[in-house]
Each structure stands twice: as C-alpha cells, then as structure tokens.
Amino acid sequence: MRLLIVDGYNVIHAWPDLKSALLRSGLEESRRLLVVALAEYGAVRGVRVTVVFDGPRSAIASPAEVIDGVTVRFGGASGSADHVIERLAYRAGQAGRAGEVTVATSDRLQRDMVRAMGVATMDARSLETEVKGALGELGRDAARGREQATYARRLEDRLDPSVRARLERMRRGLPPDPPVAEVSPPPERMDE
Question: Fewer CB atoms inside 10 Å of the end CB: C or N, the chain?
C-alpha cells in the first residue's frame, strides 16, 4: 500500500476516541484528531494518506488541502465522500496502480464497490489497530533514541576531570600545570 484513502466520518464514528471527541468537542475537533493520527501513521509507515469527508452541497467544490502531509478532501458539488473515494479508486485502477491503494471504511457497499475496481480495503477498526500499532512503534523508537543519546555523550564528558583540565590548558595555549611532586615517606633509620 502506497496510498491510503480514508472515509473520514465513517472512521470518526467507528473509533471510540474520535466518537468521544465528536460528542465532547464537536466535528472540527474530531476531524483534527483523525488528521493528526493519520499524519503520524503516514510518516511512520511511509504511505501517502488522503482522508475524505462529506461536505456541503455547494456550487463550488472545495479544493483539496494538505495538512501535516495528509490530503484532506471534502465531497460537495461533485458528490458525497463516497463518490470522491470511488473516483480516486477508479483513477488508480485506470492508471494501473489499484494494487498500491487501500480504502479504509466500514461501509460494506463502498468496500464492495472499490474492491471490484481492484483496490484493497480495510474496515475502520482494522485501521485503528494499524494506526495504534504504528504510533506504538514510534513511541518505542523515540524511547530507544533517548536511551542511545544518553550513552552517546561527548568524549569530553567521559574524560577524567584532571585530563580534561590539562587538555583545556593546551587548547588555550597556556603552559601545562607544573607536575605534582610525589611526596615520598622519609627514609627509615637503620641505626636504631
């Protein structure tokens, strides 16, 4: 899969976290959270993501917008989100790239329609599992990077402080510290 096409509102209503955000904060917030999750997923998995939402039936179709690497499209004068998804799947099939595309929706009719065009599908809950898995990998990678950074400290941080001080004097062109004379114990007297 190199392109993931997501039926936006279908996924929002299927994912518990997004549905909760929809009820608590409204449509705009749930859309924003979906786009954020899809952007992170796309970055981790190296896939392009397009999310399609139903939009108002106006005479002017709104242009696609790219947000954090995710192409956001709204259905409108040109049809519903389902129609936009079908057109994208059809174009991929016509270009011989149907095998590179996956459509994520739980709408059975929609899945059957794009599957007939040779495009793979997944339901919304499977997408949620995929996204959470990818974000879990991202978190583990970040933790591993932080751990490695702890051990990849600079060489000077690992030097003995006296060696570091002598090197710093050399760097500044100062004369080296005079050697510290070792104090030897007084000789023992043998005549006693």
Answer: C
